[in-house]
Structures are given as C-alpha cells and as structure tokens.
Design brief:
By secondary structure, the chain is α+β, with helices and mostly antiparallel strands. It has two domains: 101 residues, Peroxidase, domain 1 (Orthogonal Bundle); 71 residues, Glutaredoxin. It contains eight helices and four strands. A four-stranded mixed sheet has the order 2-1-3-4. Strand 3 and strand 4 form a beta hairpin. Helix 1 runs antiparallel to helix 2, helix 2 runs antiparallel to helix 6 and helix 4 packs across helix 5.
C-alpha cells in the first residue's frame, strides 16, 4: 500500500498543479473521482492489460468509458498514465489529490464515532470545538458505534481523541494491570 502511495504521489501532485493553475480544482476532483471509479473496474483492468493493445488503444478504451469529455490537459494526463502503465493507480491518485485540495482549502476530515446519534446542535458544537483546536474547517463524518458505551471518539488526520466510556475503561484497565 505504501508503495502505491509513493508511486501515485508525483502524478497526484502534477494533476493538482495543473488544476490549481487553471482554477479548476472542483472540476479535476470530479474528473479524478470518475477516472478512479472506471479504473477500479476489474473487467476494464483486464482489458487494459491485453498485450496486443497499443498505448493509443488503451487511452481510447479508457476515455471511452468516461462520461465526462476530456480536454487537452485531461487527455494528456490519461496518456501519461497509460504510457507508464499507471491507470490502475487512479484511485490512489484521486485520494492524494483530495488530500492536497483539502490542505490548500484549510479543510480537514473528522471521523467521529459516537455511541448514540448526535443531535444537530451537539454535533455543531463538537465541530466548532474541533475547528478551534485544529485551526481548520472540519468536515464531519459521523458513525454510530454502540460499543463505545457513551461519549465520542474523533480522528482528524493522525490525531485521535478518545472521549468514550470504552476508552476510559480501557485506560483504567491498563493502569490497574501495570
């Protein structure tokens, strides 16, 4: 997985530079998401691996599966990926592109796990608190996990804040065992 991320990074960076340079970040986000979905199709993956196909045929086959018409830089991007046998990296490229976009726009995704459904007001207060702490706009993704017993667990990037009853019980158990 780390190897795929390393290989995809320069492609994501190049796509981001082109998109940012033309003020087309939202358009490229949608386009890369569509390309990633198409590239993840196992039947297409198999067809693109056919050694009888030329690079031009691979490009045409891939482009024909897209709903969005490609412009010059878009098609060039697909061509570079196809010529380097990297079309399969599109899901990872799209994910890294979105991370670069979120960083530029000052947005962070928060994975919020709660033991119970959070009322809108409570979620808004939690998001406001997280925005003050991380100094970024927060996009919450809330998931219910009854195993937490009570409270919430929040992950923003690499940082995890565990304010759940289950987390506190685990901490107490560890302290008692040591």
């Amino acid at each position: 997985m780390a190897e795929l991320a390393t290989i995809a990074r320069p492609y994501a960076g190049a796509a981001f530079d082109v998109a940012a340079g033309t003020n087309a970040l939202p358009r490229w986000s949608g386009l890369l998401a569509e390309m990633a979905a198409v590239a993840a199709n196992p039947d297409l993956e198999l067809a693109l691996e056919d050694p009888r196909l030329t690079d031009a045929q691979r490009i045409d086959l891939f482009v024909s599966c897209l709903k969005t018409p490609l412009e010059g830089p878009d098609r060039n991007f697909v061509a570079v990926l196809a010529e380097n046998s990297r079309l399969g990296l599109l899901p990872e490229i799209a994910a890294q592109f979105e991370a670069l976009r979120a960083e530029r726009e000052g947005v962070a995704d928060a994975e919020i796990e709660s033991a119970f459904a959070l009322p809108d007001g409570e979620l808004a207060r939690l998001v406001a608190t997280l925005e003050r702490r991380f100094k970024r706009r927060i996009r919450p993704n809330v998931r219910i996990d009854a195993g937490l017993i009570g409270g919430v667990r929040v992950a923003v990037g690499d940082e995890v804040i565990d304010a759940s009853v289950r987390g506190k019980l685990d901490t107490m158990r560890t302290a008692l065992q040591n």
